[in-house]
# Entry
Amino acid sequence: MEANILMQFAQALAAGTIRVIDLSQPLDAATAIIQLPPEFGKTWPFRMEEISRYDSRGPAWYWNNFSCGEHTGTHFDAPVHWVTGKDYPHNTTDTIPVERFFAPACVINASREVEANADFLLTQEHVEVWEEKYGRIEAGSWVLMRTDWSKQKDAARFLNMKEDGSHVPGPHPDLVPFLAKERDVIGWGSEGVGTDAGQAFRFNPPFPCHTIMHGSNKFGLASLANLDQLPPKGAILVTPPLKIVNGSGSPCRVLALV
Ligand code: MN
# Structure
């Protein structure tokens, strides 16, 4: 056995004893984007335009232009995204220390509860039951809420928009300060279009995950997939956003090492 830890890592990847799980959704024109009330500005959907494909526009090469919002598809939320996180140093996609894009993950399975209730909110009690079984959430860990919501391939069902707003599961407003302050997590990840629940605009504070997580200099991951392939504890997430200068977030190819 090679003594060097990085060589051991490379060997484990090659041997398949460490597997890499893709936690990202495909990014195309059908990718669901968040719907806000009409008085607010709008994010762009993903759009792709072919420049050339081995043709008169470029005989030997294929490439595309694309456009989208920073918060389109599977993406990373930086602290500067929310007004509560705007004054932290190194709070933008280009300035967050790159070491913070590698962190362990705790995966809390709420798929059964969500099957019965699209508005299910993960509470501190749920997390404490999880901790009794799997151990305390360590400082610097991601907390990922597994809901299997990402299995809804149809954008309308994924957004689940009704007359009174979106109905998508997320964290209970009381859970967020517990995770941010008492567990000192690195951030929160969800399978929904955003990190907060669909009805979170009604909560106190509104959008608690954005308000309190970013207000505590924490990160967010939204539109995650394949959380059912992760162990409750022990996976390492790789989450680098694009190095957008002053970026509030970025589409992200989120990977898990298992
Ligand atoms: Mn976002």
Observations:
- Residues 71, 75, 77, 194, 222, 249 surround manganese (II) ion (CB under 6 Å).
- The two ends are 20 Å apart (CA to CA).
- The longest helix spans residues 5-15.
- The chain has six helices and 15 strands.
